[in-house]
Amino acid sequence: MEVNILNQKGEQTGKKVQLNDAIFGIEPNDHAIYLDVKQYLANQRQGTHKSKQRSEIAGSTRKLGRQKGGGGARPGDIKSPVRVGGGRIFGPVPRDYSFKLNKKEKQLARKSALSYKVKDNQLLVLDSINIEAPKTKDFIEIAKNLQILDKKCLFILPCQNKAVYLSARNLQNAKVVTVSELNTYSIMNSKVVVLLEEAVPALESVFNA
Hints:
The structure is a single chain. By secondary structure, the protein is an alpha/beta fold. The chain is 33% helix and 15% strand. Helix 5 links the parallel strand 4 and strand 5. Helix 2 packs across helix 3 and helix 4 crosses helix 5. The two termini are 22 Å apart.
């Protein structure tokens, strides 16, 4: 499919780029997207949660009352989970939430996410982004020209560009990634995906690797 190329002033350049239908025009697989997003979010979890169980509470193991004749339940020690300040029953323990996902499944998820953006007219292609020094106002000006300032946007660059990255860092709705850093969560979490023209062949080479 062909997509019009814009410049950073939001104007048509008269050029078009050919997007590979095997990447941008497939039938989206919702389950693959779900699994990849689930894995991404699971990998963000530290898993350091911990509560003290009965054996870890500091306190005496002395039996607090007689076994029988008290008129109530049989009393245990002060660390009993039924008492205030006692241990917690089945409390959280440190664990690793990450899980394995096949490479082909992850690729299918990213292709599906990109296809959704093309299908919903939420993908723009820019010829280039020229920011000489890190200035947030320059990046805001580009977003205004593209009419995406008030939307969550994802900028995909072919390689690292420190000036562009630092210019967008203070903006809550903007995120800048390279082709190698692209993931399904970032694509689906954005309202508009802005793809640089030079990133198109780099993206195709990643999926063909």
